[in-house]
Amino acid sequence: MTPTSHLYDALDLYLRQYALWRDIRHVQTLCWMMIGMIQSQKVHPSGFGVYVKSRAKKSQSHQRRFRRWLSNRRINVMSVHHQLIAQALSKWGKERLYLSLDTTMLWNCFCVVWVGVVYRGRTVPIHFNIVVHKSSTVGLWQIQRFLRPVSKVLPLGADVVLLADRGFADGKLMKYLQQNLKWHFRIRIKQQFQFQAEGRWYKVSDVQPKRGKAYFTGPVNLGKTKPYGPVYLAFAHDKRSDEDWVIVSDEPTSLKTFEEYRLRFQIEENFLDLKSNGFQLEACRLRDKFALGQLLWAVALTMLFLVLQGTEVVAKGKRQQVDPHWHRGMSYLKIGWNWIRRAITDQCLIPIFHYLSSDPDPDPAIASKRQHERSFTLELTVLKHMPAY
Questions:
Q1: Which of 86, 139, 202, 273 has the fewest C-beta atoms lying within 10 Å of its C-beta?
Q2: pLDDT of residue 368
Q3: Distances, alpha carbon 279 to alpha carbons 41, 53, 294, in Å
Q4: pLDDT surpasses 50 at 378
Q5: CATH at residue 136
Q6: 339-344: which pairs have CB atoms within 8 A and are 24 or more residues apart?
Q7: 387: buried, middle or exposed (CB in 10 Å: 19+, 13-18, 0-12)?
Q8: Contacts of 97 (CB under 8 A, 6+ apart)
Q9: CB-hemisphere CA count at 13 Å for 274?
Q10: Is residue 213 part of a domain?
Q11: Which of 152-166, 195-209, 249-263 has the lowest mean pLDDT?
Q12: Residue 67 above 70 pLDDT?
């Protein structure tokens, strides 16, 4: 028995739950790829071979095996992931489900549009799309087509709020979210946007909250060319960055609007996990769009598997066995990652888990006491009401 035998058995059982694989070798190769990612902490296919148990004796044979898998259009990894993330969210309950939408660039030639469910300090990937161009901006029609499969994965009747940055501020998108997907939204908008309040038109830049203050509008129409509304605006000034923040919402705004929008930044931590702080994706040599997509779906499956493991570790009070911090200083992804690697070392059985919990985080992350207190102070001083104009 090899050190990774128990992990292989767990992954094999996990990946076969719903998916109808055309060839048993497809799931076997995927299991070894995920083991390679977990063990090497990289996504470079040429480095996975040292963790594979097979009859092949040459490292080049393993490399060819993984590259053929990545280029095989008969393998639908996206379908496998969608089934497993749908299962993970199926017991979410009536709690609001926040989705974070953003883009990241790879090698200045691929734009990856990424959406994930906000979960205890990170986002768990739900869907992504790769666009071949040098800009991080994508068209409205691409975003609409991108979000359709996401809505099919989420629990029926879920109360969904989409969080997005200024690049996604578009009245047509807001209309699509409300009317077609039945979602709420919190989207940051640019200073040049115009809005109509009490029969008059204003520019967003005309409203300048004082330092450390906030202002909330009643129902307004957004955009002078093709007005969309009613929507609600929240203005605030961040003293630390000396920057104005304007959030548009389909629901009346309050201090909670900023608290909700703040959750969007958790997706940026995911991009760090994807790149320099985890899977080292930018060190990968793939430049083929389809093969890169297959690899990213394998990464998404690995992330989901590790977060589920980390959730169970924390729930059972075993976090400090793999996290040296007194308070939780690691993400659930890293906790699950360390737990699996320890299980490999000890050659322990690895159970599989299925569901993400909508309950409050039982062990919130505190990177440092000073940073935690600073964050609390920021929330009290920046987010204050400002008299209406």
A1: 139
A2: 54
A3: 5, 22, 15
A4: no
A5: 3.30.420
A6: 339/309, 339/310, 339/313, 340/7, 340/38, 340/306, 340/309, 341/38, 341/39, 343/6, 343/7, 344/3, 344/4, 344/6, 344/7, 344/39
A7: exposed
A8: 89, 117, 154, 155, 158, 159, 160, 161, 358
A9: 26
A10: yes
A11: 195-209
A12: yes
Q: Indicate whether 311 pLDDT > 60.
A: yes
Residues 103, 138: Cα–Cα separation, whole Å = 9
C-alpha to C-alpha distance for 180 and 168, rounded to whole angstroms:
17
Distance of CA 165 to the CA centre of its chain: 14
- Report pLDDT digits (tens) over 21-35: 889 999 999 999 999
pLDDT higher than 70, residue 50: yes
Tell me, yes or no, whether 157 lies in a domain: yes
Where in the sequence is the domain holding 170, given as residue range(s)? 94-269
Query: Is residue 348 in some structural domain?
Result: no
Number of structural domains (the chain) is: 1
Position 42: which residue type?
A: K
Q: What is the reported pTM?
A: 0.91
d(CA 131, CA 28): 29
Q: What span, in angstroms and rounded, lies between the C-alpha atoms of 194 and 204?
A: 6
pLDDT(240) > 80:
no
Q: Within 10 Å of residue 353's Cβ, how many Cβ atoms?
A: 18
pLDDT at residue 242 above 90?
no
Rounded Cα distance between 303 and 339, Å, is 13
* pLDDT of res. 44: 83
Question: Among all chains, which residue has been given the structure tokens 């994930």?
Answer: 116
Q: How far apart are the first and last CA of the chain?
A: 73
Query: What are φ and ψ of residue 315, in 5° steps?
Result: -60, -30
Give the other-Cβ count within 10 Å of 262's Cβ: 15
94 Cβ partners below 8 Å, 6+ apart? 159
Kindly state whether residue 331 falls inside one of the protein's structural domains: no
CA distances from 141 to 148, 149, 166, 172 (A): 11, 14, 17, 10
Structure tokens at 171: 């009245």
Q: Residue 317 in 3-state DSSP?
A: coil
